[in-house]
Amino acid sequence: MTDIRKVTVVGGGVIGGGWVARFLQNGIDVDVYDPDPEAERKLGGLLDNARRAFARLIEGPKPAPGRLRFRASLEEALAGADFVQESAPERLDLKQRLFAQIDALAPPHVLVASSTSGLLPTELQAPMAHPERLLVAHPFNPVYLVPLVELVGGQKTALQAVERARAFYASLGMKPIVIAKEIDAFVGDRLLEALWREALWLVKDGIATVEEIDDVIRYSFGLRWAQMGLFQVYRIAGGEAGMRHFMAQFGPCLQWPWTKLTDVPELTDELVDTIAEQSDAQARGLSIRELERIRDDNLVSIMRSLARSQKGAGWGAGELLNAYEARLRGGEGDTKAEPLRLHRASVSPDWIDYNGHMTEFRYLQVLGDATDAVLFKLGLDKDYVAGGHSFYTVESHIRHLGQAREGDVLAVETQVLAADAKRLKLFHTISNETTGTVVATGEHLLLHVDAASGRAAPAGEAMAARLEALARDHGALAVPAAAGRRVGEPV
Amino acid sequence: MTDIRKVTVVGGGVIGGGWVARFLQNGIDVDVYDPDPEAERKLGGLLDNARRAFARLIEGPKPAPGRLRFRASLEEALAGADFVQESAPERLDLKQRLFAQIDALAPPHVLVASSTSGLLPTELQAPMAHPERLLVAHPFNPVYLVPLVELVGGQKTALQAVERARAFYASLGMKPIVIAKEIDAFVGDRLLEALWREALWLVKDGIATVEEIDDVIRYSFGLRWAQMGLFQVYRIAGGEAGMRHFMAQFGPCLQWPWTKLTDVPELTDELVDTIAEQSDAQARGLSIRELERIRDDNLVSIMRSLARSQKGAGWGAGELLNAYEARLRGGEGDTKAEPLRLHRASVSPDWIDYNGHMTEFRYLQVLGDATDAVLFKLGLDKDYVAGGHSFYTVESHIRHLGQAREGDVLAVETQVLAADAKRLKLFHTISNETTGTVVATGEHLLLHVDAASGRAAPAGEAMAARLEALARDHGALAVPAAAGRRVGEPV
């Protein structure tokens, strides 16, 4: 992590509010300054959605949220800040005025980042006495889920400021990309702008509706781009000869007069009406808030599916998520004569079945993750597995005692029933913290194995000693009444 | 399904080969004509990857694959064809010559579709005596996974031909979008072309590398576009005021001189070298075949995660996938005095754990899906659940007896141990068909419940009769020795 403990957010709209959520969920305190009298109310709804999404995104432990305060003046909001994130409206004069004020109020070591999606940092820093601390940090909506942040320095920005900002945003689970040269709109919005103009022409000329264009995107290259970008995808399309072949084959298409991008469609009332009406039809009556949740749920699912890619090593945004979770997980302590509490999870939307409850196999996922947490504590890490040994579960018994619904938080307590150099018998109890009830128990027999032969084999000295110590500690606990049951045995 | 049983594929490269895979996996016979003497060898590798991906994409039953034949002449390849898919190189004169030949050889009722990514159907059909049967059906790579196909008719194309083609491609699990007016490059490639040109400028001007541009895409809007398109995403960004507000707020940006798209970068040797070298660096030594598999694995994961979205109803490409699987599943027959065989699944890459085997909870997923298949056969459908009743699993016992690796095919046999109006006790056996071994068994007790009270309640007459008939049929079978075990009980 970094030494940044308190951030001042200037402007609390969709982007500023997204930053507030991202900072709070990482345990950072936030003071907000926004002259809009409605700002606090509007931010509340956004933070609800962000909390809901973050609880699902991170399956392991999460930091205690930071403290949020609204401040009546810029000066109050800046008191004690380590970092300033500005997300005011996109007007150069307004932003320059703000940066001059911030510059006068905050000590020179405080970094100042602008969320502008297109203005040049050299122009933004012009009125500042300490311009070296200003940079652009341009995020993407929803800021609390989408990892990218583009970092762009101006002519007077210190390289050290860019480096400090990069480390800070990376510590928040984000993907900072430092753009080599400042240009209007940087990289992401240049690409989006090009596509947006072409899309407007297609609607204006009656080639396709808003919904058809969206379907073209999400049923084709959108699926590709969630995990690989334009160039990597084309590299594959070029076949074994790779990128040079692709350029030779498709390069000439660039000479064709395909796009109408030499010209900008005029945003007449008629075109705005057409787009607004087609967009209404496409929404099928779903409100913005409902669409926002669907978007967030799907983003979480996609990022989690990418996190499980490559045998759990992750790919792209999923690899980033794994590294972030591992950092949040940190270390574990010693054992005592009390049940282990090593795993919590919240119920994702894609864990729900047609009955409206958490589906059966997700219970075993939670139990299995709790078992993995016990094994991790015992020293079963990647090196241990690479050394040719592991633990395999050979038998499980699950009792379903209650229900869990979307968003509920589950916590697992684990008791070791028996352990020696070859065997480990665990009893997990899953509580639903949201409803205050026990929802399931799991009894599991694991064997220590030699992976090559696939047969049980005694653990080495160190592992055996840890297994025995854990069994000894837990031997003082009462054996749960439900241990040792057959399916359907009378209570 | 449609009445199309045999397709002739003309041109068996990356796109033609992708079509071959898509047709074969839907049980359609394919005759290929490609004058390249290397075509058959090249297609083999592509089909291996496609089979691997399709086995993972579809969790339920799959059709028996169609028969593939290479033919030495266009005439032989066209014999008996119901449909022709042309994927020859992108040269108008070459394609026109081909369509004149196909037109002379194939009876007039045979539909002819071109995979061209930019040529106009009106020009392609010019030399044909039966131009009404020609249309463009433009797919996206990899054709065996990406659902979109753009359908574009020319001036002489019959509306009926477009409709027949639409139904055919939809039956293959694809998303056909009919483009209202023919324009060069249609819709998808217009959008891609706009973005591609801008990306080339960014590399040429040294603003960002190939890898940085790809990261900008896949860590931001690529994640959004896998599930919602450009307009829907902006609708949400506009907040409660929706699209009109977004246009009012961001429309003016279109007047800014942001993009350099008024001009086309010249593909000098220097630019091609820069891109090829940056692309090599980005690939980190992964071969095209390895990247292709990573891409396919991720596409499968993303589509499957979207299929589980919205409480299993699915969203976008996932909703489409659910409908396709339901169609492939079809109906089930009556019960007999033999175990039920209602569920098969193949082991996806994201089912594998750090030991290199299928992870624990996926066994319960396979068992739960098999239970769902039994319940579906008993008449538990959406209407039944909507009527306020369902079955809940209350207790499970799993034995792990073997392993499954990536790509293995699992098949479940189910025996009903007991059933009455309130209870159903099942015993599933999961076999690994790839290794010919039993890998797990599951014993499960389910209760018929009133969903409102969450308590056991007797099933209605019809359901109770079906439960009892199934129990009676299976009463003739021997009880499995492993039924009724405790965890760790001696064998």
Automatic annotation (TrEMBL), chains A, B:
Keyword Oxidoreductase among UniProt keywords: yes
Record's keyword terms, sorted: Oxidoreductase
Top-level taxon of origin: Bacteria
EC number from the UniProt entry: 1.1.1.108
Protein name: Carnitine 3-dehydrogenase
Originating organism: Antarcticirhabdus aurantiaca
Species lineage: Bacteria, Pseudomonadati, Pseudomonadota, Alphaproteobacteria, Hyphomicrobiales
